[in-house]
Structures are given as structure tokens and as C-alpha cells.
Amino acid sequence: MEILRQPEKFSLLLRRLRNGAKGILFCDYDGTLAPFQEDPKAARPYPWVSELLREIVATGKSRVIIVTGRTIRDLLQLLSIEKLEIWGSHGRERFRPDGLWWTWEPDPKEEQILDQIHCELGQVLPDIRVERKVGCLAVHWRGLMSQDVQRLQQIIEETLRKWDCGGVVKRKPFHMGIELQVPGPNKGNAVSTVLAEEFGQAVATCYLGDDLTDEDAFKALGDDGVNILVSATARPTLADIRLENEDEVRVFLEGWRDATKGGADDGR
User: Fold this and answer.
1) Which of 20, 26, 130, 173 lies deepest, with the highest CB count within 10 Å?
2) Residue 187 above 70 pLDDT?
3) Which residues are within 8 A (CB) of 136 and not within 5 positions of it... i.e. 6 or more apart?
4) pTM for this model (two decimals)
């Protein structure tokens, strides 16, 4: 574990959980709770994830929320846990434990731009995985050679210049791909919405994420909680702590579980 800033925030987080504060645990999925795979459908969670999250939920003292770039339907096929809340498509979909399913409605004209880009990329790059989501389009290049990635990036830019003359579509890089998004909610909006719902409550909040898209969530949480970057290598980030690997994530979540159950934890 690498402390990037304000080490006292980490010990304070677990102390507040032990003292009875309600826990709000945000987790990204790919790269945080599951290893990256060339085929995203094969990205099953680490073997310990489902049971450990169930244990955290079962204490009744924590709200566990997955915030992912995946669609909710996609994630539910990989991770199905009762009383788990999911924000999908980078905060543009929401599935609550009570069964409520909310989907943000983009501007129809902006959606049409994405549809045109999607159609053209599908024709020009039939072997490349292009994923259409709510108000966004993900292009994956995991498994490609570097020269092929460069050519793919060039084609994407050419397609954007053709169909997005007004510069509406934003580029959001992620691990081995790029997200093309029209303006709208992001992971930070998901965090802000949940925090607003808990306004006035004594809460202990944490966000775990690995990607550049998680920086929006780190920014939204700010000093109201602990931001944790999951990455084997250091990079510029708004996070407070860096966990290097699966084992460190597991140990942290076990500490969270034990703190909410009243177990011993020295906060280090």
C-alpha cells in the first residue's frame, strides 16, 4: 500500500466504521474487482470477491455500490449479489437493490451522432469490438499490436471529424481503449448523487478505482472520503492511497468488513 497524501484519512476511515458510522463503499469493476481480459465477457471477478462483498453487505452497516463503464446488464451476468447497487455506463444507468432501474436520456441529436460513428466504425473495422452504451461508444483495442492501435486511433479521429463537426463528442481514454461520450453524467455524478442521499448522516466513504475515468469519482468524493487507486504502477491521480494488486485490495476489503463487524483493525 502506498500512501499518496493525508495518511490519517485511512486510519480515520476504519475508526469511524468501528465506531458505528454507516459505510459507503464504491468500487469500480474491471481492474479493481476483476482482472482485465482480452474478451471482456470472460472478466470474472477474483475468486474471493463475491463472498467478501456478500459478507460486507450482510453486516447491514454498509452500502456497497459498483460504479462501472460496463452496462448494467453486462455486469449482472458477471457479478450477481443481492442488495448490491450498480451504476453502469459511467453513471448513466442505475440499478438499485429494490429493483428500480434508471437510465439517463441523452439529447436525440447527440445520440444520432454516436449512431453514425458506430455504424461507420462497424463497417470500416468489422473485427474491432465497438460497444454502444447510453450516451457513449466504447472502442476496445485490447490484444492489438501497437501499430494496429495507432491505425485504429487514426481511423477514430477521421470518423469523428466526419460526423462530429461541432465537437460534441468527448474522448475518454480507458485501459486499452477509448470511450466516445456525449455530454452527460459521469462516475463523479454517481458519487455525488449517493452522497446527497446520505446528507446529514454519519458516514465513512471510500472509492476504489483503477482507470482515468475513475478520476471523476475521486474528484467528486474529494475530502469527504478516501480515494483509492488500484494500479501496479504510479501515475498522476487525485487518489489518497494506491493499492498495487489483487491481494492488497482483498486485505483492504477484509479490513472494511471486520471494522463493520467490530473486528480488530489497527487502521494501517
Assistant:
1) 26
2) yes
3) 89, 90, 92, 114, 172, 179, 180, 181, 182
4) 0.89
